[in-house]
Description:
The complex is a heterodimer of chains A (322) and B (535). Helix content of chain A is 44%, strand content 8%. Chain A is an alpha/beta fold and 322 residues long. The radius of gyration of chain A is 24 Å and the shape is elongated. Chain B is mainly alpha-helical and 535 residues long. Chain B folds into 3 domains: 9-209, no CATH class; 215-252 and 266-294 and 458-535, no CATH class; 298-431, no CATH class. Chain B has helices at residues 9-25, 31-47, 51-81, 85-133, 151-166, 176-184, 197-205, 212-246, 254-285, 303-309, 312-327, 330-347, 350-368, 372-390, 392-402, 409-431, 435-447, 452-455, 466-487, 492-497, 501-518. Chain B starts with 8 loop residues before the first helix and ends in a 17-residue tail after the last helix. Chain A binds chain B through residues 10, 13, 17, 20, 23-24, 27-28, 31, 35, 44-48, 68, 72, 92-94, 96, 98-99, 102, 128, 131, 133-134, 137, 143-145, 147-148, 150-151, 173-177, 179, 267-268, 272, 274, and chain B through 1, 4, 9-10, 13-14, 212, 216, 238, 241-242, 245-246, 248-251, 460-461, 463, 465, 467, 505, 508-509, 512-513, 516-519, 521-527.
Amino acid sequence: xxxxxRRKTVARKLIGAAIFILLLLxxxxxxSHWFYPQQEDLTMQDVKPNGVLAEPDxxxxxxxxxxxxxxxxxxxxxxxxxxxxxxxxxASSSQYISLTESFVHQSLEHQKPKLIILETNAFYRxxxxxxAFITRIENMFSILQFHNRWKVxxxxxVKQTAYTWKDDMKGYKYAKMTTKGRNFEYMIPTKEIQPxxxxxxxxxxxxxxYCNEKGVKVLFVSTPSYKNWKYEKHNAxxxxxxxxxxxxxxxxxxxDEIQIDWQTxxxxxxxxxxxxxxxxxxxxxxxxxxxxxxxxxxxxxxAYSDWNNLIPKYEMxxxxxx
Amino acid sequence: MKITSYISxxxxxxxxxxxxxxxxxxxxxxxxxxxxxxxFAFFWFISEFLxxxxxxxxxxxYLLALLLERLKSKRDSALQAAASRExxxxxxxxxxxxxxxxxxxxxxxxxxxxxxLKYSPFLFxxxxxxxxxxxxxxxxxxxxxxxxxGISFYSLQAVSYIHDVYKDKIKADKNIARVALFMSFFPIxxxxxICRYADTAYDLYAGKRLQFKNLTFxxxxxxxGAFKKMVIADRLNIIVTTIFKDYEAFxxxxxxxxxxxxxxxxxxxxxFSGTIDVVIGSGExxxxxxxxxxxxxxxxxxxxxxxQRWHITLGTWFRDYIFYPVTMSKPMKxxxxxxxxxxxxxxxxxxxxxxxxxxxxxxxxLWHGAGWEYIFFGMYHFALISLGSLILPLTNSLFxxxxxxxxxxxxxxxxxxxxxxxxxxxELIFNARGLKDALxxxxxxxxxxxxxxxxxxxxxxxxxxxxxxxILILAVAVVFAxxxxxxxxxxxxxxxxxxxxxxxxxxxxxxxxxTVVFGAYGxxxxxxxxxxxxx
Lengths: 322, 535
């Protein structure tokens, strides 16, 4: 092959490659257009917290967000039984604060709670930071952001999906098991701070700001967990609460009132609470919330009869721990 | 820039194109240095100042190999000058022991660094445990070190280089840049494969011109690897994490534990082989042939065959640098000789092989991590392989008696499923959060097994919905189909390349689009950190 011919071949291949890349980008742009939400859209990935979308609009007084610490410690039906305010736990395993933010946004589109609660363990879950380049690419090809909408899109046209799956446990995950932990003083007062990753703190600030704009109060709650919590973290969250104007309740500092017994109340030796622990936390938290935020007792409200109807099933499901 | 994985925007969209561009624009002679600069920059991005350990390894093997070479040439000159056979024998013996000392020094430096950085916390924790159990009033402080990513891989490469020079398989390289490149080539530094000097070093240093076919084939392999990792492994990670983390708190039955073991095995394969596809594809773009690390492992009919198809380069490393040296050592040879006389042709060599297998599997377990569960994982495979060898004559005679033909399809399918299930049990041990958890999970698996949770919808409450399940089945079917083509000795990429443009381009575009649309990334998904990079 002479030089001229070789150049021609190379040029042909380069043009071919360029056309292929352009074609691929075109397909991605078209898909971006197709996948971009054309109307109000509800696209959440996790099944259990998605249950919040099936709740009647504006029916919840409290929505709780967080990771497994949240869905094992907070039981809305338990708090309903005792205090009569409707709530929902919008929590998922190892939830990142970025996902919390999208859950907050999406659920507040349909609910006007008096209060949202952010469980603070998720504040410390380290995220891979998106750099400017990735964000720019994502903005250009929105398919990268909305790709997961394939689950809810009609093959022909973009369509809003009705979420009908209701969670009878209202986001709570029943933990029956007991793995003995040990009772010791793990909240040792100190002035030290374990910093919350900067990007996470920024997400929390944005969530609080968004809620303030919507007129929804924000409360940070740290659930009892000696494996996950310590005074250094308390100090950091308290500082963040002060900075953002959110309220903060560290249940680890109320051990005497809640009477958590780590020998019997934990599913996995000090990490998550089991149902016995959940009941104690809900008794304390439910009363605290009802008093502090003046939550109305709706147990006699006919609009909430569904909640009362849930109680027998809830008691049956949790009967082994009665 | 922080690179955490090969399958990331930072690597695929920024680092790799930049490295290719740098490679193209520099003169031919500077190309190896361009890759070397890129490799050191890459290592800096993943491990920062821990790069000093890598530099220490490079310097140690470079200098020790040269010392070996000098000892060999000194020996050769002395042999030429020697008059008697006795004198020659003496010279050889003396040189041999000096060379051996150099090899041992190389091993001690490189495996020593690995051992101190990775295993000393485990060792000291167990010393303290021993003190506690024996009620001794003593304790040692458990040291904590930061180990560079990839140390388990490049340390083995370092040892293979020294050993191969010692065994005259290769010459000691006077060019330190080539040695450095062999040790640090950025596509292999994080997760292997574990390369040999003779296979890759000269390719790496050749500075070949970028070829269109290499670039396109490399890109195709990268796209397929990303598909495996993002669509399958990252999606499976959701359910696998839930099962392994919550099995106790939520009292999962044996059926869900079994599902967790199977899905984790699949996840590990898709993650590791997907990353290796990206690694090999990246090397291919530079015209560097990186050895294959997987050969359709789930088509294996025995555990031994599985390990010849799974993480191949680790298996061959253990074979060449542990199994053979142990079985070929003088005491073992002697033992085999006497055993052969007493036990016959099959059982005679077995004691030596079993001892060597024990060493291999102990090291294999430890290589994967400093924990008793990893040692247990190694011992599990050791037990399976040894048992297989021990009962072979018995199974042979039973098969003959029952007229079972091992080459018939039904038996092949049975053997494949049996092997896969045994592997899954091993991976259950491997992924448990410690030996205690592994044993608890095994107990639930075998005492509370039921398929109830598979059919009553419990599976869909573990983080994946029905859409995810459908995508998983389709994606695994695609990988399986590619595996069958490869198993038949054909190259899927070559087959597609022969098709007309209106067939092959839609295939390529469909692969990328499927990864972009069905990939488990973004809000709600947690990408798995490279599993093998942590070993």
